[in-house]
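Anyone have tokens for Transcriptional regulator? Sequence:
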Amino acid sequence: MEMKWIKTFIVTAKYENFRKTAEELFLTQPAVTKHIKRLEESLNIELFERIGNKVVLTPAGHRFLGYAKEMVAKYEEGMEDFESWKQGYNRKLTIATAPQIASSFLPSLLRSFMDENPDIEVIINILKSYDVGGEISKGRADIGLTRSHPIQTNINSKIIYEEPVILVGPSECTKRSSLNEETILQKYRLLTHNHPEYWDDLLHEVQRYYPTVRTMVVNQVEVTKRFIEEGLGASYLPRTMVAEELKNNKLTEINSEKIIPPKSSTYLLTKIETEEVIKFIKFVKRPYLGFSNIHS
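Reply: yep, here.
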């Protein structure tokens, strides 16, 4: 019995159609038919009933489907573990993280952690901030890093970092020193909702002082920054999100006057504290890394 026969069987059971199975697996229809026939011969029982161009699972096929999925899952898990072993890893740490974090401080943090722990294979899963908690809750990741407080009650949540949020505008603002908070918010659209936590309250505060401000919803930080660079607007963003652009004069920080910007929190989420998770938490606790808000 070959694994490719079992995989073909699972896909065929999903579509109940040899042509669709062939398209998904990039096989010919005769190859699909051959795989199913060989599997049935190996098991000495029919798995499908042929009805014209369609195939339907027999009672034996229904019974075998659960076993087939388990076999494929175990096989793929084993091959992943073996491949990790070949690369010198003997432990694994899966981190689910929001894109805002993955594109800011996480790369340098991971580089130091991985240099110190070369035997730990780190897997990064990029998700929306609101989805990170669910990934931890369901046990599909060991650590979550997110900008929003999780709603799940079966996981642990710790604030590991707080940073200021600042108003940023296009680089052209640098050349016009007269552009302050008021003129920026009158001249440019305010690009909103690129952060999962603070925008509702912040927007209400902005509109209280500047009721005629024009807004545009842009729900991704990277797109927001690009829009600002092109002069399409201004926005309030966590400082680490724009540090590189400020340094390279692609964006300009505008001093706040009436608006008191919020702080942006980074949450570390866990469910089961494995040895690898504990190592990571101890690592980010180190004072020189700047994550001084984490609690034991």
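The chain has a mean pLDDT of 88.
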